[in-house]
Amino acid sequence: MPFHSPTVRAVSALSVTQLIGWGATFWLPAVTGPAMASDLGMALPMIMAGPTVMLVVMAAVSWPLSAIFERYGARPIMVLGSPLGAAGLLVMALADGPVTYALAWLMLGLAGACILTTPAQIAVTEIAGEKAREALSVLILAGGLTSTIVWPLTALLQAQWGWRTTTLLYAALMLLVCTPLHWTMLARRPREKSTAKTAAEPAPIDRPRFALLAVSFAANGFVTWGFALTIIILFEAGGLDHASALAAAAFIGIAQWAGRMADFLGGRRWSSFVTGLVAAALFPLSFIILLLSSSFVGAMIFATLYGVAGGIIAVTRATLPLQIFPAGAYARASSQLAVPLNLSFAAAPPAFAAVLTSAGPHAVLWLALVISIFAFGTLLGLWLLDRRTHQSSGQ
What we know:
This protein is mainly alpha-helical.
């Protein structure tokens, strides 16, 4: 891969810190949740609401952080965010009830806005330059393995030492591994460069294109984060036995990773619009197949299309802003895009659960189909608007 060594080091370091960051926070209750509920005397839904609180806080903080990222770069914010994340995990490990448990997730939300996904992508673009798209693809490709690695590790640690010690160990990793990696491996912005950027007018962000991009990404994010909770139920409602439903659902993760790999391999030949539109079209196609088929083969075809689409869209979220906004506005645009994205991620699980319990599993499938068609339409509209803008400007 033709990256300069600083880019390779940065992407490698961020791959590790993103795995630890997401695995120690959002994905943690998926394994430790029942033990937490029993120990803290809280209902399991209250425990599982913790990651939702984290995402809402991340959304609230992302917009104010956008100007700081643009002025000072990602490194100082990520260096401060890692100890804050460790402190949040320490509070969680010592929690004695709902108040301290909620406080922990509030702290993790603040830390997440400083270190998770968007800051990492900003850090990559700062150091990779013209190779930013390829570097982002590698980072996101590595991130697709987070749950695969962290869930078994968390289960092993919890079986040996319990959920509190497991959480403390993750706090130690956040402090002793993530903080020094963010300090040593990310780009140090020269003082004169920062001063020049501060004195100049900030690069403009075209608001119509920003709005279409935000709506499309948020709509697809709402589908993928909410639909994940109902996949096995939908397979079983369609006539599959539990083992077959589990097998088809598990294959989605493999297909997502394959989608990320396909985007990485073809990223030099295809624009982010091409890959994004293909992925956005695969989502409704996959839901139509699941509506029309009740066989295991149909479920596997759905899992393949849906997974590949999800993997490609994950990369497109990071790379498309590079294509439609000025390079100097990437940090600000990405931080502001994180607001609707994190809100849609947070709202999706309870919304889909409410539809599932009130109207049944097929209503969830129809909802996903309609929203995914809408997401494709808005992304297509963005592509047409972007072409018209470039043509009118003579580019």
